[in-house]
Design goal:
By secondary structure, the chain is α/β, with parallel strands linked by helices. The protein has 10 helices and 7 strands. The chain has helices at about 5-15, 20-35, 45-60, 70-80, 95-105, 120-125, 125-130, 150-155, 170-175, 180-185, and strands at about 60-65, 85-90, 115, 135-140, 160-170, 190-200, 205-215. Strands 3-2-1-4-5-7-6 form a 7-stranded mixed sheet, with helices on both faces. It is globular. Magnesium ion binds near residues 40, 42, 142 and 170.
Length: about 220
């Protein structure tokens, strides 16, 4: 039977990356996407210039990622977390979750990551009771773009954001998340900043929106 793109991406990780070395896993995926097949990972330009620096400056103890896909950004974030910090990542497609688990394991960051196979709408309300989460220091939004706003409001309602919590949203230009941007840029509860970049592995315009919850 035909392999899927996530499966071919995983094969490239097994072939090219060194087990236990997260940077080599990130490099192997970027090479695969540049040389073989485009895939919707945040990529190295947005990853190194924006995601990595926001994670490092936030120095988060508790991170939520919406939309694991193949685990590329999961590995980038986990490799920058301080000891004992935890990253919860939500992925509702079982095939993608299966690939992501193996990418995360190969990178050697599995003990920092809890991959939950399920929908954000169902699991965000369960974060406190199921995982003992109080609030998230950082949330990386990279799932369906038409769900960014809904899930942000849900996190507010569930009391999962505190003064200083950072929301970092991928693709606010391409494919775009207009209702999210409209809300977050006009809300007195957030201080937002746009980081211009390019769509992963292309020259097309894109960027990330960083928003700090003011409480
Ligand atoms: C119930 C749906 C909302 N809740 C959800 N809960 C858990 N996981 C969810 C999820 N939504 C989506 N997912 C998962 O996240 C992933 C989806 C990511 C969506 N990302 C994009 O569409 C995207 C798309 C592009 C893109 C850009 C230009 C282009 F021409 C084509 C694509 C670039 C990106 O960087 C992207 O992130 C999948 O693995 C999906 O199964
Ligand atoms: Mg994205």
């Amino acid at each position: 039977t035909q392999s899927t793109r996530p499966q071919r991406l995983l094969a490239a990780v097994h072939k090219k990356a060194t087990r236990g070395n997260p940077r080599s896993v990130v490099k192997a995926i970027d090479e695969f996407c540049n040389q073989n097949e485009w895939a919707m990972n945040v990529g190295n330009e947005k990853g190194s210039e924006i995601l990595d620096s926001v994670v490092s400056e936030t120095n988060p103890g508790c991170v939520l990622e919406l939309g694991t896909y193949c685990g590329y950004s999961t590995v980038r974030i986990a490799s920058l977390l301080p000891p004992h910090a935890q990253l919860i990542t939500l992925e509702f497609n079982p095939d993608n979750a299966a690939v992501a688990r193996q990418v995360i394991a190969w990178a050697g960051v599995a003990e920092k990551v809890r991959l939950v196979e399920g929908e954000s709408g169902e699991w965000i309300p369960k974060m406190k009771e199921q995982f003992g989460v109080k609030t998230f220091d950082l949330v990386f939004l990279d799932h369906w773009k038409n769900r960014y706003l809904l899930d942000t409001k849900l996190m507010e309602e569930c009391g999962l954001l505190k003064k200083g919590s950072v929301l970092l949203a991928d693709n606010v230009v391409c494919p775009g998340a207009p209702d999210y941007l409209e809300y977050i840029r006009n809300s007195p509860q957030y201080k937002s900043q746009f980081f211009k970049s390019h769509l992963e592995y292309t020259k097309a315009e894109d960027g990330l929106e960083k928003s700090v919850f003011l409480g």
